[in-house]
């Protein structure tokens, strides 16, 4: 991961009330290398997952790197219940 990547912390509870503010915070950053810091996040609900999946798609389409770091085992389990892994929430850096 490049040191030039921006970091955005995820809220403790990424649920319905937190989903829209996260979406609004991410929109102006689309296309910039970004790390979502999940170290303080203990719960990821479906609305939060929808925002993260949409972000991953937007970053992929922009050819930019988006990664998620510090995902707790509890959040990994919540993702697994939805048939997802942390990799599903990340873009892959496009070849130049």
UniProtKB/TrEMBL annotation:
This is Anti-anti-sigma regulatory factor (Antagonist of anti-sigma factor). Pfam families: STAS_2. InterPro entries: MlaB-like_STAS, STAS_dom, STAS_dom_sf. It comes from the Bacteria. Residues 1-96 form the STAS domain. The lineage of its organism: Bacteria, Pseudomonadati, Pseudomonadota, Alphaproteobacteria, Rhodobacterales. Signal peptide: none annotated.
């Amino acid at each position: 991961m490049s040191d030039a990547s921006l970091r955005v912390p995820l809220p403790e509870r990424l649920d319905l009330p937190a989903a829209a503010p996260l979406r609004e915070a991410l929109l102006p950053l689309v296309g910039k290398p970004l790390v979502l810091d999940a170290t303080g996040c203990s719960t990821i609900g479906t609305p939060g997952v929808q925002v993260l999946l949409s972000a991953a798609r937007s970053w992929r389409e922009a050819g930019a790197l988006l990664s998620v770091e510090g995902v707790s085992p509890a959040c990994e389990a919540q993702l697994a219940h939805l048939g997802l892994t942390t990799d599903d929430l990340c873009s892959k850096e496009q070849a130049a």
